[in-house]
Specification:
It is a single chain. The chain has 248 residues and is α+β, with helices and mostly antiparallel strands. It has one domain: Aminoglycoside phosphotransferase (APH), C-terminal lobe (Aminoglycoside 3'-phosphotransferase, Chain: A, domain 2, Alpha-Beta Complex). Helices cover 41% and strands 19% of the residues. The chain is built from 8 helices and 10 strands. Strands 1-2-3-5-4 form a 5-stranded antiparallel beta sheet. It has a 3-stranded antiparallel beta sheet with strand order 6-8-9, covered by helices on one side. Strands 7-10 form a two-stranded antiparallel sheet. The longest helix is centred in the last third of the chain and has 21 residues. The N and C termini lie far apart (50 Å).
């Protein structure tokens, strides 16, 4: 780690930060249980993950994975359809693996969180009532029973790295655990609806698109308060509020 050009701040907020120093990512997390999950999940996942270099609480050092991020919310993806299909195939390998042995996504918690966040959006007058009501109804399609699988839990396209049509690494595993397969597929395609068919083709099994759309609405509704309180802008073009408007 000598003679690096700069220290790049990848993301930073009150709960933690990620820095890049040359070919090393340094993750600082106030909650070490999230780091515990990340390290354990990467050891279990049957897909490419970053190499753990060292860990000294509260810092986890990971080797950078090659390639480029599949995409980012609010920006068109430069990745080819084949790369999105490869991401779908990679997710399928993950979902086919035995779920990790710790607690994961919970249906009743998801329902409660949706209710709480919709009430907050209404009382704080953040969004028009009709926009919240419409998407709250759309989200109900996702809130049904599911068979738990090994899920990443926060599978944004920025967390999948590709080189051509090959997935070179999947990063940020702190939310991994048993959960709904459709949730991973929804988070991957959030704001990138044009690539949903490519992902499903690579995934290789039937997917209920209404459930995917339900998770898009759920994720967008439940994320807005956190984003606003941590210095992010859900009103930016192509981001959470635009995703909610698209469901109208």
């Amino acid at each position: 780690m000598t003679n690096v050009d700069e220290v790049q701040v990848v993301v930073a907020h009150q709960e933690g930060a990620t820095l890049r120093v040359g070919g090393v990512f340094l993750k600082v997390d106030a909650d070490q249980s999230r780091t515990d999950v990340e390290v354990a999940a990467m050891a279990l996942a049957p897909v490419p993950t970053p190499r753990v270099l060292w860990r000294t609480a509260p810092v986890l050092a990971l080797a950078a994975v090659p390639g480029e991020a599949l995409g980012r919310l609010g920006h068109p993806s430069a990745a080819a359809p084949g790369a999105w299909a490869a991401a779908g195939a990679t997710i399928r390998r993950l979902h086919d693996a035995p779920p990790p042995p710790w607690p994961g996504q919970d249906l009743e918690v998801a329902r409660t969180e949706l209710d709480r966040q919709c009430d907050w959006l209404a009382t704080q007058d953040v969004l028009p009532t009709e926009l919240v009501t419409c998407n709250r109804q759309v989200a109900q399609a996702a809130l049904r029973g599911w068979t738990p699988v090994f899920t990443h839990g926060d599978l944004q396209p920025a967390h999948i790295f590709v080189r051509g049509d090959e997935v070179t690494g999947v990063i940020d595993w702190s939310e991994a655990g048993p959960g709904d397969a459709s949730f991973d597929l929804a988070i991957l395609t959030l704001g990138h609806e044009e690539h949903l068919a490519d992902v499903i083709a690579g995934y290789g099994s039937p997917v209920d698109v209404d459930v995917i759309r339900g998770w898009w609405s759920w994720r967008s509704l439940t994320a807005i308060q956190w984003l606003l309180e941590h210095g992010f802008d859900p009103f930016a073009p192509g981001c959470e509020v635009d995703i909610l408007r698209a469901r109208m």
